[in-house]
Task: inverse folding
């Protein structure tokens, strides 16, 4: 019975199927909103589904210079790690696997999709992929610093009340704190960290001003240059899942709370909040900006978002 | 059921790849204009990709010169099946005013099979949208015939 | 770091999109648009002026002897045309017209030919009377 329950968790509700639909619809909403912001009609909301299923039906070409097994396995590894994260993120008070994972594990698992992109790109043996890989590495380095400092601030804030003043990395403790004292966002010392995290999302998912790794006009989509058919479809799915999971993590960290107690409603509220976060942080920025250069991105992330999250950390440490 | 979904998806999500085989840039500008807010080809799912591996529809503009001939053939060979080739403008169809030049020996259909011709010098964006629409139909039929 | 156009983006989110729904709403080409050639073979005299002025060489003329006279076929290949309207401008009889039909999508190149055939009557047998008139002119 327990095994059946866990299988249900893994494959259906917070796991694969839920993520599949939620992520692809979220990506579709993002594309539609960007189109409307640019005064276009835009693709239908189900467009990412069409893209995914079309790529499933295309021929898969594996170049001669590629390492065959790594080439196919890399996107699947990324997908598995993303599905794993979805099991650990609590939806208000409900979480599938509660005690085993905290924020640190999620941070590691969130790096794996980017690492899978790097491995896949390097196994394809194309010089364009090489350039893309180096850019992807820079982007990981640049967003990781403000992200971790912001998470430290959140952990400290929650730990002050729930964990005897120690920093806590347990997501369930953070949710517990928010159900006691209201969402993190309403504590004014957390607002700089909130803003920093909003800026981290577009880089994490690789959307427009920070999609230097997959610049389609400069370096032919970077690490994805040799991919076609099934593995490319998995990468596109990974992109959609990354948007959903990161915005979901964001909602859990900053906008969570008591919830209604019914899982279905909680999931719906979480999803609506995810959509709002994505529109604010991904769509709006994507609609009005052009692509940055590598060093501009590094400079941006190591100044403004890092400064904001450090400010938040200091305020929390002072007990404000 | 999956077969049906995939067939419908082919109709809804054709990705484009644009090859400039020595064009004068007029067709290229008109082609990019179809993706601008006014004509917005993205509402049919068209998307400009950066690499031939992702593409379904290859749009070739310009006369195929001796210099670009090898590149055009190799780029089109890298596109996974099923694929559709669209000749944009009068140049790939015949050479237009460049015909008879020392560097333009043959038309595009001498090298690769061309599925759709969009004549015009340069064609209106509406004509290009019509041509891409036709290309999508051919893409769907090719998918159905293969499987 | 500043983000211009944020206001514009948010405003246009709630406005009607400026996209033309082209294939569903038909559109006329603007006035004076140079589209597919319309050849009126009954007006043509086969002088070949259009062939001389055509830069890409899209116009071909083929003649065939018949009993009535010469059967002349003018062929305009749209796949090679630059749509410059020079042929129509130089035609002494106004037999060529560039219509506003812009969409000439085809799968087969031979569909792009616009041709017209007419029979050019041989000049009548010369008589004594007419020769004198021509001398006076």
Result:
């Amino acid at each position: 019975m327990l095994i059946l329950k866990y299988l249900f968790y893994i494959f259906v509700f917070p796991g694969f199927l839920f993520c599949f639909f939620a992520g692809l619809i979220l990506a579709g909403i993002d594309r539609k909103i960007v189109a409307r912001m640019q005064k276009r009609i835009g693709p239908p909301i189900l467009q990412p589904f069409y893209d995914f299923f079309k790529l499933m039906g295309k021929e898969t070409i594996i170049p001669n210079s590629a390492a065959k097994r790594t080439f196919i396995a890399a996107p699947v590894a990324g997908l598995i790690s993303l599905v794993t994260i979805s099991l650990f993120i609590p939806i208000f008070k409900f979480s599938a696997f509660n005690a085993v994972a905290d924020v640190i594990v999620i941070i590691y698992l969130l790096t794996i999709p980017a690492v899978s992109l790097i491995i896949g790109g390097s196994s394809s043996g194309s010089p364009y992929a090489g350039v893309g890989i180096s850019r992807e590495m820079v982007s990981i380095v640049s967003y990781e610093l403000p992200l971790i400092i912001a998470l430290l601030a959140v952990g400290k804030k929650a730990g002050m009340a729930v964990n005897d003043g120690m920093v806590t990395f347990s997501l369930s403790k953070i949710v517990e704190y928010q159900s006691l004292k209201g969402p993190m966002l309403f504590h004014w010392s957390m607002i700089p960290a909130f803003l920093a995290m909003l800026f981290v999302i577009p880089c994490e998912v690789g959307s427009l001003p920070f999609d230097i790794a997959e610049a389609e006009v400069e370096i032919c989509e970077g690490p994805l240059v040799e991919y076609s058919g099934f593995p490319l479809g998995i990468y596109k799915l990974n992109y959609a899942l990354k948007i959903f999971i990161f915005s979901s993590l964001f909602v859990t960290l900053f906008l969570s709370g008591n919830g209604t107690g019914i899982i279905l409603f909680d999931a719906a509220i979480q999803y609506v909040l995810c959509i709002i976060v994505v529109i604010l942080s991904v769509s709006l920025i994507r609609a009005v900006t052009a692509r940055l250069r590598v060093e501009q991105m590094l400079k941006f992330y190591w100044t403004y978002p890092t400064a904001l999250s450090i400010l938040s950390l200091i305020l929390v440490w002072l007990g404000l | 059921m999956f077969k049906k979904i995939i067939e419908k998806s082919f109709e809804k999500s054709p990705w484009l790849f644009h090859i400039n085989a020595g064009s004068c840039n007029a067709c290229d500008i008109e082609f990019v204009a179809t993706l601008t807010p006014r004509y917005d080809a993205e509402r049919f799912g068209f998307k400009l990709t950066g690499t031939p591996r992702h593409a379904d529809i290859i749009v070739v503009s310009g006369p195929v010169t001796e210099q670009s001939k090898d590149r055009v053939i190799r780029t089109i060979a890298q596109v996974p099946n099923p694929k559709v080739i669209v000749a944009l403008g009068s140049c790939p169809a015949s050479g237009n005013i460049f015909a008879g030049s020392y560097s333009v020996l043959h038309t595009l259909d001498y090298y690769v099979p061309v599925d759709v011709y969009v004549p015009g010098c340069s064609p209106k964006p509406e004509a290009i949208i019509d041509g891409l629409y036709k290309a999508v139909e051919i893409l769907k039929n090719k998918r159905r015939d293969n499987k | 770091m500043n983000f211009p156009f944020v206001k514009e983006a948010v405003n246009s989110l709630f406005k009607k999109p400026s996209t033309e729904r082209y294939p569903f709403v038909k559109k006329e080409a603007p006035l004076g648009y140079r589209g597919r050639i319309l050849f009126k073979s009954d007006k043509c005299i086969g002088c070949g002026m259009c062939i001389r002025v055509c830069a890409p060489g899209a116009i071909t003329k083929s003649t065939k002897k018949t009993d009535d006279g010469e059967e002349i076929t003018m062929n305009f290949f749209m796949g090679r045309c630059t749509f410059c309207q020079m042929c129509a401008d130089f035609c002494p009889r106004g037999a060529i017209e560039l219509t506003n039909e812009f969409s000439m999508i085809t799968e087969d190149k031979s569909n792009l030919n616009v041709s017209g055939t007419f029979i050019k009557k041989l000049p009548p047998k010369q008589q004594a009377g007419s020769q004198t008139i021509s001398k006076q002119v």
